[in-house]
Amino acid sequence: MASLAEILRVVGRRRLTIKRIPLADVVIIHSQGAQDFTPLLSNRKVLILDPLPVTKKISLHPVVLIRTLLNRLNGMSRETAYLASLVAQCKPKLVVTRVHNSKPFQRLDRALPKIPFLALQNGTLAIELDFPADQWTIHHSHFACLGQYEVDQYTRHGASVQNFHIVGSLKVNQYLNFVKTTEQMPVYDICLVSDYGSQDHPTQLCDYLARYSSETGHRISVAGRAEQTTDVEVEEKWFRNKLGDLFEFIPRPSDRFASYRAVHQSRVIVAWCSSMLREALALQKPILAFNPTGNERYNFPVPGMWAMTNSTYEEFRDRLDWLLNLDGEQFEQTFGDLSRYLMANSSGIQTESVLRSLIDEITSG
């Protein structure tokens, strides 16, 4: 009964239900990013489950409770035991997530080896910092990743990945299918992709960009990161304080593809470490990753002329001047191999089509 008491302790203000968990062809773990899967799962019954403690609803269905208790007796953690019992009730052919660095998802993948699991990459990991090899072994039965870089990175790190699938960026592919062209007339000279967070701010990068724009008159856009209205307002205010009126702020919630459109309409893309730098390469945009913090978490995955750490303003200015003057042939010479290594989209892979085929293959097995 200890496990039942554990479940009741986490109920809190969550809504209780004794309804039977519905059957589903596909279960999505984490509501975050779940909408990205919608075009890929047509004609399939889908159920979205958030793990504890995020979930807003707790099932007290007798079968769920019994399975949870049995799972606990088999050594599963409280969260995994409960989530595994929900998934087992659904009898899915596939369990997926957009949050590929989710430990609850990886635990569940280990706990239910008879059910296929597919993690779709949504960003670049500082893998040695986020998952130290002596503390956690990354596990995926199927991992759909951005490029060959992840295969090398995860293999080198000792991750347990049974099947790598190099598929590229789903959002880049969806954006290009939406606009139906890789060509876009520049509206901005430089797009700063926001890495704004609650603790770390790109202060020096903004200082340099403000000075550069003042000296050259180049047009700057800032592709926002925050998603909630109040957070967006705080984010824009911070950039206004740093850049004044020298830029156009593009809120992320303003458009499903707002950030991608801002990148596509710019000549050069600048950021600390955002994964959109990689995606910008797939849109054939020169990039500059600028990390003056000394924190290796913010280093670009591959060092080169496209990445700077601690530099003077004059070095920063000269690098931007060079990037802004690259033509198509020079872009290929400088970024071609890097782009194809980091982003499968750059090799012509149609991510949506590949993922649909992969899902069909897994679920028909």
Quick tags:
365 residues; alpha/beta; Rossmann fold; 2 domains; 6-stranded parallel sheet; 14 helices
Q: Which strand-content bin applies to the residues?
A: 15-25%
| Largest sheet report | 6 strands, parallel
The chain-level structural class is: alpha/beta
Which of globular, elongated, flat, extended, rod-shaped describes the shape?
Answer: elongated
Please give the count of helices.
14
Main β-sheet, spatial strand arrangement: 3-2-5-6-8-10
- In the predicted model, the low-confidence regions spanning at least 5 consecutive residues are none
Share of helical residues: 40-55%
First-residue to last-residue Cα separation: 38 Å
- Count of strand segments: 16
User: What is the correct CATH architecture of the largest domain?
Assistant: 3-Layer(aba) Sandwich
Would you list the SSEs in sequence order as H and E?
HEEEEHHEHEHEEHEEHEHEHEHEHEEHHH
Q: In total, how many domains does the architecture comprise?
A: 2
The fold-level CATH name of the largest domain is Rossmann fold
The first-level CATH class of the largest domain is given as Alpha Beta
Average pLDDT number: 91
Can you put this structure into words, describing what you see?
- By secondary structure, this protein is an alpha/beta fold.
- The chain has two domains: 2-168 and 351-363, Rossmann fold (3-Layer(aba) Sandwich), CATH 3.40.50; 175-347, Rossmann fold.
- The chain is built from 14 helices and 16 strands.
- The chain has helices at 2-9, 62-73, 78-90, 103-111, 127-130, 148-157, 170-179, 203-216, 229-243, 258-264, 276-282, 313-324, 328-342, 351-363, and strands spanning 15-17, 26-29, 46-49, 57-59, 94-97, 117-120, 139-140, 142-145, 160-161, 164-166, 188-193, 220-223, 247-250, 266-271, 287-290, 307-308.
- The strands form four sheets. The protein has a six-stranded parallel β-sheet, sandwiched between helices.
- Strand 11 (188-193), helix 8 (203-216) and strand 12 form a beta-alpha-beta unit.
- Helix 2 crosses helix 3 (78-90) and helix 3 (78-90) crosses helix 4.
- The protein starts with a helix and ends with a helix.
- The mean pLDDT is 91.
